[in-house]
Structure formats: structure tokens, C-alpha cells
Specification:
Radius of gyration: 33 Å
Strand content: over 45%
Shape: globular
Number of strands: 50
Helix content: under 10%
Largest sheet: 22 strands, antiparallel, barrel
């Protein structure tokens, strides 16, 4: 295979003329790989100097060197070769693939490590595999690719991505980009092409350096830096379109009429009470003439595009990397009232002063987003769209908006809109000084200042609508409103650090780090509004009714500081131990509870480096095998930074009283101060092993983890009532949660002829239990419905063992739910769990599996041959369930009968139905819709999450075009195919079956990469 230039910055040192020109000779040669293909862009340099060159498109080089010099030939992904040149002539150098994956640098908190040296539980993300995939956010890019990560995609609405990220089932993790803590929004909006590396830190040993904020795990990202070499320019374009992935099939007019006839018959209104047989025949003959609400208001597909251009280069003294990125998405509605545009920029520059060992860096980056939404939420719009039936119409025959009740067209076509502009900018600088008089000792400083602001306008105005006779209804001016809101948040971070790294007697490796960190945050917000607009030409607050103008503002701040320490020792990369910790404090806690120490310890033993392991290596069983374990205490900052709940606060109430006929304001006490509040404490235990076998072709890692969490803040309502009419203060409770699980991965990589391929599998499994809760004594006394002692992840509490009554004898001869009346075959029959001859609340139990999966997995597959590459990711979950809501059940009857799956009701000829006999809450005293395990529906799935096919024309067609470094065309897709029991209800990742949320999307794209 001919290596591609794509995404690589080849180091090209400046040639240095030899002092003794008379002893120089010309060394020429060709660099090839093991299959004989030329290696383009390999670095050829004289060992110990900066004199060098690179190979051309044929793998050839020519260089003037001193006689008897040693050439050092290197290329990314290959083992460096050394060749001594004793005479002029042609050389042929074969590079072998580098299998030393154990020594690849891994970025962690406040430092780096490698698989060989690592004693903690962490995982790395191969960003090269997702940069061509049309993901609009980084959360989706992680799904199914990393052991320990659980991602759920809740929505595909542009600008409102619903992806949630969890590490080992915990809450929102901490995000760190280029050494500084950022919000989840900043991580989600990262440009994929800017990422150099990404590491997920999972246990205490890897996260303790982040103290009280790291209990849920940490995602560490580093962005690309300039590299020594000639100027390189890269451009990537991605053009995509989105369409709903698995929308529930809607009833057509005939199916809807059939469903309502059945419903009315069950309710005693007779046969064909909604539509007569003659009307049913007419509907069947002209079913296409009735309204398809999706076809009327939604597009089949919506466009998306992304463009990235980057420039990088530099020399030994100054290096730079600069990029610009633009993402555009449109909404699925025909009215084109939804759009999202995002602009990212980044500039990383570093300078090195080799004479004094000083390195300076500056990073300037930012994001601007422009968002335009209709003046109602996606839930409002899609709920109204789904609940309309085929006999209703959004528009009149003349194209005007109809006066249909809850007509979504009235929102989509209205002049009202919600417009947001958000701007984020960051400036970061860093200094590192390698002290020349102490080997391995360096001191450094870095600082960050970022500011985020947003301006939002909500203009609420509806379009005019008409009845069938053309009579118009205009919006009442009193209902037209305008509001403006804005916020500005800024933050700075400052770190001072000392690092020491050295090796003694060639085998004793010591590494130490000390860091002092300070952080400060300040935010403020302002909002104002008015209503009653008699003119809509000028959309400004002061143009509304002056008496309706309102305004408010808020302000908050928070400061924290910490001292970080890490000490690592290993003997010959065989025995490893590391101590790390952070003394951390935050002013969102009272003085006596403000600071805490979060320590950790980890150790590793590389058995494969022992002499007794040699026979195992020789048998090819293991090339590398290491055991490791860790323990530590980490914090979870559960307090709201801007609340200062330990301080007395007051509420200012406008127009609270009338005194002497005038409105006056008042001040009332705020929440009762919580004087003992502090962070939650999470203890983490981890045992794992790393291995490589089959000549390093198969590698993997597995971990068992156990965690306990204490210190939850809660008001002691389980002990006291509110004695003075105010809520009781928060306090540290005795509640405790416990969690344990397994995660890991295996990956096989090989080459057959000119075909390179790899296959990887990763998984995460966990369960957690409420070991001790804050429930009151009465609740605790019921072992079946209390939370204490139960595994989290059950779906609900209700009746269990549910089945259908199939004949009158079932009803007459068995216990019935006490409140139920007029039961018939096809109604739900609940189990008499306690055997007392009746079915009531004492028979209710916990049941089911929560919609949040406790087991997730992913397969990564890749292959390449002569410039053609294929990348695929398959992702899925284990057992999970979704409880059908009242809407999906059709509990309300006629108004909620929307989907074809709701037609599958019980009858004597359809006894294995999805639904009981047609009905609503008035039928049999709501027997069928009472909480029970019947409505828990399996929602586990497996899906082809992404697929990319690409071809690098530089491989053959454009091989001789020296000016061109890369030209790759690709086609890609997301959410292409899914298998699971819930796809008939909605997309398998949905959290419910209502289909009221903005639809999940299937994405197809084409694009190209160009480098020169």
C-alpha cells in the first residue's frame, strides 16, 4: 500500500551544509514498504543533525552527506531505520510497520503517558475515523467507539442536539480542552478536524488531579499544533442531506376511520357510529385525497453542509496551525423557519528558543452560532402535527391557513420567530522552560481567558387564518409580544507547574508534577419584554404597550483553587506505581467545608517483561501482558455555583401589596441557608489488564470497576416537616449509591497482500444500587416499592404479570383490580402477587429495564486497498425498555389515535395483539391504562451507525503531481440501518414513542479532502 499524505504534516528539517565539504558524498536511494510500494514523504536525515530531505512521489531521495554518516529514515506508522553509508551509490531501504503501539503518547490530565507506562483506566479515541462522517456534534461521534462511554442521541433538531454522554453510567463528565476546563457545549461544538487526540479518563487514578469536579470522569482533548515542514493547506467539504430515520407509520384516512369506529363501538356507541359502511367505501376508494400531514408540512429531506480549511507549517523555531470551519443545517419543515449556522476558528502558534530551552505558545479560538427557530418549541409543533387526523386540513383550497384547531401550520407559517446569536472567544497562552542546569526539570505557566455572550429575540406573532367561507381571524394585538434577553459569561484559569522526569541507572524512571491552579467565573444576564403591538413593522420593546414593559437581570460568580501533585516511579517499565491527588477548594461551599483532599494510588506489573514469561512469548500466546489496579476518592460538585446556598438571601417582589390604593414592593427571605453543604464523595476501585498478542496484531484492555458515592445533599423531609412555612435547608445526608461494572475492547489489525484491515469490539456494562436512601420510615417499610436496596434501572412501579383476559371465565374465576368494572375479554389481567384474593396497591412491584442502557457495545471495521478505504461502525445496546406514554397508548381515545401500530388491538381473532381492546380512560374505570409491566416495551437495538467509503486519487491517478499532497473523495452515512423490536414505534434511540420530538435523522453525504 502506498501511504497517503492525507492529514499528515511531514517534518522537513532545513538542510545544513557540512563544514568539511571535501568529505561529502551523494547518497541516493528508494524507500519502500514491505510490499515493495514506494513510501512517499518519508524523512531521510543524517543522524544527530538537522540535515535532511524527504522522498518524492516515487519514494526516491538524494542527499549530500559526510562519508560514513548514518542515515535515519522515518515515517509515521513505520519503524525508524538506520543505515550507515560508506560509499556513494544507490540504496534501497525497506520500512517495516511500527507495532510499538504500546509506546504511543497518550494525553492525560496535566501530563502524558503511554500504554506501556499507564497504570490507570483510560481509553483513546481515533479521531481519523470520524472526520469524514457528517456528525454535527462530538457527542454523536463518540457513540459506539469507546469502551466506558455511553451516548444517547435524544434529538436531531439543528442547534438543539440531545446527545447525552456518560462515563460508566455516571452523570455529565468534565471536559478539558488543551488543558482548560470547558462546558459540554464547547466540547459538542468542536471542529472534528482540529482534534489531535482525545482521551477518556475513567478511574480515580486518572481523574484525581481534577479534584471535586471529576467524579463522573473526564474527557481530555488536545487540538492540532503546527509541525516542522513546508507550508501545507488542507480543505475538506462535506455535503449532506437528512431525512427522518424511523418515523412511526401514520394511519391513513381509512385506517383512522376504522380505529374510531372500533373505539366508539367499545364505548357503547354502536357499529359504524363514526363513518357508515357507505362512507367507509368512499374513503377506501379515495384514500389518497385525504390529508397526509407530514407530506403537507414536512420535506422529505433537508440539507446540511460543512467546510473546513486549515493551514499549518513552520520550522524549528516557530510552528503554527490555523483553521476555519463552517457548518450549516436546515430544518425539515417546508416553511424553512429553522436554520442553524456555526462558525469555528482556531489559531495555535508556538515558538521555541533552543539556546535557553524556552517554549512559548498562544491559542486563539472561538465559535459563533446563528440560530433561527419558529416561535414555538419542536414539541409543540410536532405534537400538533401528529395529533391531526386525515379528515382535517392545514390549508384551505385557496392556500390560506385554515382555522383548524391546534393547526401547526399556524406556527410554521407565522411571522413570529426566535433568533439567537452566541459568540464565544478564548485566548490561551503557555510558557515552558526546560532548565538547562538540571536535567529533566522544567517549569511552566499557562493561562486562559474566555468570554461567551448571547443575544436572543423572541417575537411572538401568528399568521392570519381563515374559515371555509374566507372569513379572516387576525391576531389580537394584545397577544403579540416581544422579548429580548442576553447574557455574558467570562472565565479565567491560571496554572503554574513544575515537572521533573529522569532515568537513573537506565532502569529507574521517575516522574513528578506539581501544579497550582486558580479559576474564576462571572456571569450576568438581562431580559426585557412587552406586549400589545399595534404595528409589527418595528419589532422593538418600546413599540409595545408602555405599561406592559418588564425587565429583570441576574448576576453570579464563583472562584476555586487547587494544588495538584503526581509522583510516578517505574522500574524498567516492569513495576509501576503512581500517587496523585488534588487539594481543592470552591467558594460555593461554606468556609469550614470549602477544601478537600482527593487522593489516588495506582500500580501496574508488566508480567511479560519478566524472565519467567519468556516461554509464553516464544509460544506466541502474549507479546505483552500487564496487570494494573487503582483506588482513589474523587469529588462531584453537586452545588449550583451561582446559588451560594450557605448564605442568607432575599427575594425582591414587585407589586406585592396595595397600601393606600398604591402598589408597593416587598422583600422576603430566600431559601433557608445550608451551612454544612459540600461536595459528594465518590470512591473508585479499578482492576484491569492490557495485552497484545499474535505478533502485536491483536491488542486489548479490560477493566472491572466498583464505585460508592456518599454525601448527597437533600432537605431532611424524611425526618421533619416544614416547621416555619419555608423549605428545609440542604444538608449532607447519609444516602449512598453503589455501582460496579466491566468495560473493555479488543482490536485485530493485519495485512494480507496489499489489503490492510482491522476489526475492533468495545463494550460497557454496569449496574448500580441505592444502598441507602433518604426515604421516610413508611416508604422504607415496604420492601417492594421502596428504592433502598433496589438496583437502579428498573422502569417503573405498578402491576406485574400482566396478560389479556381471553374469555369470561378468566374474569369470573380470578381476582380483579378492585376499582375495575365491566371487564371484558381483551382487557388487562394483573397478577395477584401477594395471594390475598384481590388486586390492589399491595400487589404493585418494581418492573422492567430503564430506557438508559446498562450495556452498550460497538464494532469498528476498516479496510484499505490501493487508495480505496472503507470504515464502518456498528453500535447497539443490551436490554432496555420504554414505557408507552398515555399518548402512545391512545389513552385519550380519538384525539390520540395517530399511528398504524395503534391498530393492533385485541380481538378474538387477534389474541397476540400489542394493545388491549379499543378504549379510553372511561372504559372499565381505566383498568387497561393503569401502570403495569404490559406497557413496558423492549427497545434494545443494533444499528449501522456510520459507513464511509473513500478513494485517494494521489495513490495512482495523480501520483506524479508533486504539488498535490492529497485528493480524497468520500461518501458517508449515519444511522443507515437498525434492527430492534421498537423500530415500528420510532427511531430505536428515542426516549419515547410519542414521535412528538423533532425526528431522529438518517444522513447521507458526499465530500472531498484536498491537500497541497
Amino acid at each position: 500500500m502506498i501511504p497517503s499524505y492525507a492529514g499528515r504534516n511531514v517534518e522537513v528539517p532545513k538542510p545544513i551544509l557540512s563544514v568539511n565539504q571535501q568529505s561529502n558524498i551523494t547518497a541516493q536511494g528508494t524507500v519502500v514498504d514491505v510490499s515493495g510500494e514506494p513510501v512517499i514523504g518519508a524523512t531521510v536525515k543524517v543522524k544527530g543533525t538537522a540535515q535532511g530531505t524527504i522522498t518524492d512521489i516515487n519514494g526516491e531521495f538524494s542527499i549530500q552527506i559526510p562519508l560514513n554518516a548514518t542515515l535515519e529514515i522515518s515515517y509515521i506508522g513505520y519503524t525508524t531505520q538506520l543505515t550507515k553509508v560508506t560509499k556513494a551509490g544507490k540504496l534501497k531501504i525497506t520500512l517495516k510497520e511500527d507495532t510499538k503501539v504500546l509506546d504511543e503518547v497518550i494525553v492525560v490530565g496535566y501530563g502524558t503517558t503511554s500504554t506501556r507506562k499507564n497504570t490507570a483506566s483510560l481509553a483513546t479515541v481515533d479521531n481519523e475515523k470520524v472526520k469524514e462522517v457528517p456528525f454535527s456534534d462530538m457527542g454523536s461521534a463518540l457513540q459506539g467507539r469507546v469502551a466506558g462511554i455511553i451516548v444517547q442521541q435524544g434529538s436531531a433538531e439543528p442547534g438543539q442536539n440531545g446527545a447525552s454522554i456518560s462515563i460508566r453510567g455516571n452523570g455529565t463528565p468534565l471536559y478539558v480542552i488543551d488543558g482548560f476546563v470547558v462546558t459540554q457545549a464547547r466540547f459538542m461544538q468542536l471542529n472534528k478536524a482540529d482534534i489531535e487526540s482525545m482521551t477518556v479518563l475513567k478511574d480515580a487514578a486518572s481523574t484525581a488531579v481534577y479534584g471535586m469536579n471529576a467524579g463522573n470522569g473526564v474527557v481530555v482533548v488536545t487540538t492540532k499544533q503546527g509541525k516542522v515542514g513546508k507550508l501545507s493547506v488542507d480543505y475538506q467539504a462535506n455535503f449532506a442531506f437528512n431525512s427522518p430515520s424511523y418515523p412511526a407509520e401514520r394511519m391513513d384516512a381509512y385506517e383512522y376511520a376504522t380505529a374510531i369506529n372500533k373505539l366508539n363501538q367499545s364505548l357503547g356507541q354502536g357499529i359504524n357510529s363514526f363513518k357508515s359502511p357507505e362512507e367507509m367505501a368512499e374513503i377506501a376508494a379515495n384514500v389518497g385525497s385525504y390529508t397526509n400531514w407530514e407530506k403537507e408540512l414536512l420535506r422529505n429531506q433537508t440539507p446540511q453542509s460543512e467546510h473546513t480549511v486549515s493551514i499549518s507549517g513552520g520550522d524549528e523555531k516557530i510552528k503554527f496551525f490555523t483553521s476555519l470551519n463552517y457548518l450549516s443545517q436546515s430544518g425539515i419543515t417546508k416553511s424553512d423557519c429553522l436554520s442553524y449556522d456555526r462558525y469555528n476558528y482556531r489559531s495555535n502558534v508556538s515558538a521555541h528558543f533552543d539556546k535557553i530551552g524556552l517554549t512559548m505558545g498562544m491559542n486563539v479560538n472561538g465559535t459563533l452560532t446563528d440560530e433561527d427557530y419558529p416561535n414555538a418549541s419542536a414539541y409543540t409543533i410536532y405534537s400538533r402535527l401528529k395529533d391531526r387526523n386525515p379528515f382535517e386540513r392545514p390549508y384551505n383550497e385557496d392556500g390560506t391557513i385554515s382555522n383548524q384547531f391546534d393547526n401547526p401550520a399556524l406556527i410554521l407559517d407565522s411571522p413570529g420567530e426566535i433568533v439567537l446569536r452566541t459568540v464565544y472567544n478564548q485566548l490561551a497562552v503557555n510558557l515552558k522552560w526546560d532548565l538547562p542546569w538540571v536535567k529533566g526539570l522544567s517549569i511552566g505557566m499557562d493561562g486562559n481567558y474566555n468570554i461567551e455572550s448571547q443575544d436572543r429575540k423572541d417575537w411572538i406573532e401568528k399568521a392570519p387564518y381563515y374559515d371555509a367561507d374566507g372569513n379572516v381571524t387576525l391576531q389580537d394585538p394584545a397577544d403579540i409580544s416581544m422579548s429580548r434577553s442576553s447574557y455574558q459569561n467570562h472565565r479565567y484559569d491560571f496554572n503554574v507547574r513544575i515537572d521533573y522526569k529522569n532515568t537513573f541507572a537506565e532502569k529507574h524512571n521517575v516522574q513528578a508534577t506539581l501544579v497550582h491552579n486558580r479559576q474564576y467565573y462571572h456571569g450576568n444576564n438581562l431580559s426585557a419584554g412587552s406586549n400589545t403591538f399595534y404595528t409589527t413593522a418595528i419589532q422593538q420593546i418600546q413599540k409595545g404597550d408602555a405599561s406592559s414593559i418588564t425587565a429583570s437581570n441576574g448576576e453570579g460568580e464563583q472562584a476555586s483553587m487547587g494544588y495538584v501533585g503526581r509522583l510516578r516511579y517505574d522500574y524498567d517499565n516492569r513495576y509501576m506505581v503512581e500517587f496523585s491527588g488534588r487539594y481543592d477548594g470552591s467558594d460555593c461551599f461554606p468556609k469550614d467545608n470549602r477544601f478537600g483532599f482527593f487522593p489516588s494510588v495506582s500500580a501496574g506489573w508488566a508480567l511479560s517483561e519478566e524472565n519467567f514469561f519468556t516461554p509464553i512469548k516464544e509460544l506466541g500466546i502474549f507479546d505483552y501482558f500487564k496487570l494494573r489496579g487503582s483506588y482513589g476518592e474523587i469529588g462531584i460538585n453537586g452545588a449550583k455555583h451561582d446559588d451560594y446556598a450557605y448564605m442568607s438571601t432575599y427575594n425582591y417582589n414587585s407589586n406585592a401589596y396595595v397600601i393606600d390604593g398604591k402598589l408597593v414592593n416587598s422583600i422576603t427571605p430566600g431559601a433557608t441557608p445550608s451551612i454544612n453543604m459540600t461536595w459528594y464523595t465518590r470512591k473508585k476501585y479499578d482492576i484491569g489488564f492490557d495485552f497484545a498478542t499474535l505478533n502485536n496484531k491483536l491488542e486489548g484492555s479490560f477493566d472491572w470497576f466498583y464505585e460508592t458515592t456518599k454525601g448527597y445533599l437533600s432537605a431532611p423531609l424524611y425526618e421533619y416537616t416544614d416547621p416555619i412555612g419555608y423549605s428545609l435547608p440542604l444538608e449532607v445526608s447519609e444516602a449512598e449509591d453503589r455501582s460496579e461494572g466491566l468495560d473493555g475492547f479488543v482490536k485485530y489489525s493485519d495485512k494480507i497482500g496489499q489489503v490492510e484491515f482491522s476489526a475492533g469490539f468495545n463494550f460497557t456494562w454496569y449496574h448500580s444500587i441505592a444502598a441507602k436512601t433518604n426515604e421516610d420510615k413508611v416508604t422504607l417499610s415496604n420492601p417492594y416499592t421502596r428504592k433502598q436496596g433496589y438496583l437502579y434501572g428498573y422502569l417503573g412501579t405498578g402491576y406485574v404479570g400482566t396478560q389479556f383476559y381471553t374469555n369470561p371465565q378468566d374474569i369470573l374465576n380470578n381476582p380483579k383490580r378492585i376499582k375495575s368494572q365491566d371487564l371484558r375479554p381483551g382487557d388487562l389481567w394483573f397478577a395477584d402477587v401477594n395471594g390475598d384474593g384481590k388486586i390492589d396497591g399491595q400487589d404493585q412491584r418494581k418492573y422492567g429495564h430503564d430506557a438508559t442502557p446498562r450495556f452498550v457495545f460497538g464494532f469498528d471495521l476498516s479496510a484499505s486497498w490501493k487508495g480505496l478505504s472503507v470504515l464502518a461502525n456498528i453500535q447497539g445496546t443490551g436490554r432496555r425498555q420504554i414505557y408507552m406514554s398515555e399518548i402512545a397508548m391512545g389513552k385519550e381515545g380519538e384525539r390520540r389515535l395517530d399511528f398504524a401500530y395503534q391498530l393492533d388491538t385485541w380481538s378474538p381473532t387477534n389474541t397476540d395483539a400489542d394493545f388491549p381492546r379499543a378504549g379510553n380512560t372511561s372504559l372499565n374505570e381505566n383498568n387497561n391504562y393503569s401502570s403495569s409491566d404490559f406497557w413496558a416495551r423492549d427497545a434494545n437495538y443494533i444499528r449501522l451507525k456510520s459507513l464511509t467509503i473513500s478513494y485517494d486519487f494521489k495513490h495512482s491517478v495523480l501520483r506524479k503531481e508533486a504539488w498535490l499532497r492529497n485528493l480524497t473523495l468520500f461518501a458517508s452515512g449515519v444511522n443507515l440501518f437498525a434492527i430492534g423490536p421498537s423500530v415500528k414505534y420510532s427511531d430505536p434511540e428515542s426516549g419515547n414513542f410519542d414521535n412528538y420530538a423533532y425526528p431522529m435523522m438518517r444522513t447521507y453525504s458526499i465530500g472531498f479532502q484536498l491537500g497541497f
